Amino acid sequence: MRGHGSPVSDTLTLALVILEGIGVLAFAASGVLAGATKRLDVVGVAVIAFLTAFGGGTLRDVLLDRGPFFWVANEGWVWAVLVLAIVGPVFLRAQHIEPTAKAMQWPDAVGLGLFAASGTQVALESGASPLVSTLMGVVTAVFGGMIRDILVNDIPWVVSSYQLYAVIAFAGGWLVWGLGALGVAPVVAVAVGAVVAMVLRILAIVFNWRLPGWR
Amino acid sequence: MRGHGSPVSDTLTLALVILEGIGVLAFAASGVLAGATKRLDVVGVAVIAFLTAFGGGTLRDVLLDRGPFFWVANEGWVWAVLVLAIVGPVFLRAQHIEPTAKAMQWPDAVGLGLFAASGTQVALESGASPLVSTLMGVVTAVFGGMIRDILVNDIPWVVSSYQLYAVIAFAGGWLVWGLGALGVAPVVAVAVGAVVAMVLRILAIVFNWRLPGWR
Amino acid sequence: MRGHGSPVSDTLTLALVILEGIGVLAFAASGVLAGATKRLDVVGVAVIAFLTAFGGGTLRDVLLDRGPFFWVANEGWVWAVLVLAIVGPVFLRAQHIEPTAKAMQWPDAVGLGLFAASGTQVALESGASPLVSTLMGVVTAVFGGMIRDILVNDIPWVVSSYQLYAVIAFAGGWLVWGLGALGVAPVVAVAVGAVVAMVLRILAIVFNWRLPGWR
Fold it and tell me: Terminal CA-to-CA distance of chain A, rounded, Å?
């Protein structure tokens, strides 16, 4: 069994569980939409939803040698993703909604912000340096979506889209660290970092902010 | 070094090693056939065979923080896979056998059943909950094949085939848990779960049982 | 936190850090070239550079349950890769250099030799058997490049190129083990294994040595 992280306040723990749970559901929804766009079967949609939802946090915890995993300690969220993966496609079909690649960007933006902030905070608490912690925030935020894209055989967004994506997760992580270093309570730092990253990502989608390219 | 799992009976340990070993060889054979179908070079075939054979069990043990790995504790199976990966292609060519994508389904079915059952039992023994244990069984059963498919640049079967595949592994895992909960000896529960999953998977191939799709 | 490996001499530790660091920069350079060839955005190039540079060593350390990771213990190399990933593309554009798939083979050969040798030595020190240690050397040497190729949606080189690649890493690992078994000092064994593997790989590129194929 992995050791638990350093003890932290119950309020922070509870807040992190709730924020990670919302992020899990948001990423699961983006996975369901990705699977639906590719016309995967019902089990394929569920597999993608699971991996997108839990992949990033699990890799972070393996890298930090930290446990138990979020989905082991909070099994309710696993059931919630299972329900979402089964009900989601049924709902989409009943409503004759044709999911597009664009639709999954919105829940993905919510997950990105939440996981970047919570992932950074979790790593900071385990004693990692600021740079390693913000990189762990990026891992938590982008790895699930990366698996999602590889599984449906696309070059992952995070490396190919010319969109502001991983860099927003990185910035959100540094914001969480910076606020904490200024003495802000961690729970506030995480909430602010998550909201700022989420809003930046949504603005990047809406206004089509682009990274510099090759020409 | 990772800690060992809880102590279990020597008979069960031996039975699990034998069952996992057969599963390893079956998945290695499916990897060799996949590599041959794609005309990979001899080293490529060996790499795919290794990852298909040992990928699922290794990821399970990393997630359960359990060790030593199957292939570290039972090095004979590594040599066996190495021999199979070298002799297999030579044999296929000598016999002028053209491997098809269909051929690799049969050894894959054997590996799926064995790994779903043994993976679930290993997780249950390490103290995981029934849901987490059956998910670990699914991970053990499908992850190796998923790497195999990603490496040859296909959308993995498990998410795209409309075949009963991951869901059979999931059902096999619940059967292992259920039999154990009813007081059946673990070694019997694993054997029954493995055979039932294997037979279900073979029936699914033969009768082309399909999952509900999008139309 | 993972336990540290067995104590080894300070000279060997320092030599390994320097050799791994050079390997990290070489693989990062190959990742930058791969990303540039595919016209990825600046963040995508950085993500590929990071994963190519640190992927193999990190997987090895997760599998060996060994810590802290190279990039956690030696954070300077993370900053170096970050700088390389930002300056590299700017330099390529300023010089009007069109990177080709062939160009990334040269830094990749340097990384392959260094990681095969150092990866094997690290595994031997942690108490793994010769076969497991050489396989860990192969994992260290090829996994980063494998992620790089999967991310840009190619069938990885290591399985498809018909080039002498993974097999050279395997041979380099056995050489490190063999020299050590003959009583050669580890630091010399690693240096010789790395140089031999590197030279073999470069000769394989230059003279286009091929593996036996299917026809």
Answer: 51
> Do residues C120 and C193 lie in contact, with contact meaning Cβ atoms separated by under 8 Å?
yes
pLDDT in tens, B134-191: 999 999 999 998 888 888 767 787 777 778 889 999 999 999 999 999 999 999 999 9
- Find out whether the peptide bond into A7 is cis, omega within 30 degrees of 0: no
Helix, strand or coil for residue A101? Answer: coil
Within a domain: residue C212? Answer: no
The whole-number pLDDT of residue C200 equals 96
In degrees and rounded to multiples of 5, residue C81 shows phi and psi of -65, -40
> Does some domain include residue B214?
no
Is residue A24 a contact partner of residue A77, using CB atoms and an 8 Å limit?
A: yes
Domain that holds residue A137: 10-206
Position B16 in a domain: yes
Q: Is B80 on the interface with C (CB under 8 A)?
A: no
Q: Is the peptide bond before C186 cis (omega within 30 degrees of 0)?
A: no
Q: Considering only CA atoms, which of B58, A202, B182 is closest in space to residue C139?
A: B58
For chain C, percent of residues with pLDDT exceeding 70 = 94
Closest CB from A41, A50, A75 relative to B213: A41
Check whether the bond before A68 is cis (ω within 30° of 0). yes
- Taking a C-beta distance cutoff of 8 angstroms, is the pair A15, A109 a contact? no
Mean pLDDT of B65-82: 88
A212 in a structural domain: no
User: Cβ of B1 and C131 within 8 Å?
Assistant: no
Residues of C in contact with B44 (CB under 8 A): 158-161
Q: What is the pLDDT of residue C214?
A: 64
**Beta carbons within 10 angstroms of residue C212's beta carbon:** 11
CA distance A44 to A85: 9
